[in-house]
Amino acid sequence: MQKPPLTVFLASPRGFCAGVERAVEIVEQALLKFGPPVYVRHEIVHNRYVVEALEAKGAVFVEELLEVPAGVPVIFSAHGVPKTVPAEAARRNLFYLDATCPLVSKVHREAERHARIGRQIILIGHTGHPEVIGTMGQLPEGTILLVENVADAETIQVADPARLAFITQTTLSVDDTATMVEVLKRRFPKINGPKKEDICYATTNRQLAVKAIAPECEALLVVGAPNSSNSQRLVEVAYKMGCRHAMLVQRADRIDWTRLGDVRRLGITAGASAPEVLVEEVIAACRARFDVTIREITVTSESVQFKLPRALGETRAAS
Q1: Looking at 21, 131, 154, 276, which residue is catalytic?
Q2: Residue 180 in 3-state DSSP?
Q3: Which CATH number fits domain 102-199: 3.30.70.270, 3.40.50.1820, 3.40.50.300, 3.40.1010.20?
Q4: pTM
């Protein structure tokens, strides 16, 4: 029986970013240097495939430091942690490695700089996300106010509009964040912002790639995890660009083919914490059902690399 034709629009860039690659490599190198078990506080990145692969090598994932026994290394996830976490590790004499993405650490430093000169800080982000918890935990409670949407931006009350700054979570929708920033600047004309936007290059590039392919697609699959903020934003971007069926899938075997119906133009991308092997798995599943033609649409190239912690003997240079 002849397979129906399917054109796959493959977004590029997609998948792993430099911060995720660094975090995963920190766990792998720690396992090689210190031997298993190596403990990791929280999922190193938001992807079960990655986490399970590291577990198979000897990584043990926990949610709190109290679950970490004495005498073993512990790694903090790419999302960043409140200052209380390394302080507690130091109190217990635990050897720890910090896998916080350097671009998240940049936001932490911005927050500290604003606080030092007496500015109240507005953080644009999502309640409960590990990155937001980590960023707000860099400073005493009440120093940072959280804004999640335009309604919050319109109503938030501040102590002194003349001494105010904003920072953002790194994995937000570029367009939605710009709208909230516009509201804050209208309400508080003297508000200070970052010299370079906080939304990371990888989040921005993956959203641009989805914008490039979504108008061509009848449906679009985002390979990623439900708790991955940047992956969820890619689904939202696809909808806003007119793709009538955009959905998040963790693995090829989770695809609901009935929802795709008689689709003949399918977009595929992946969140920044999803490895390319999962994209290849989805493409293989498509080939099993369709006569597939691949069109890869590239909006930019990426060459960023980040150094590993000195304790792991890093030799690579940062881009």
Answers
A1: 131
A2: helix
A3: 3.40.1010.20
A4: 0.92
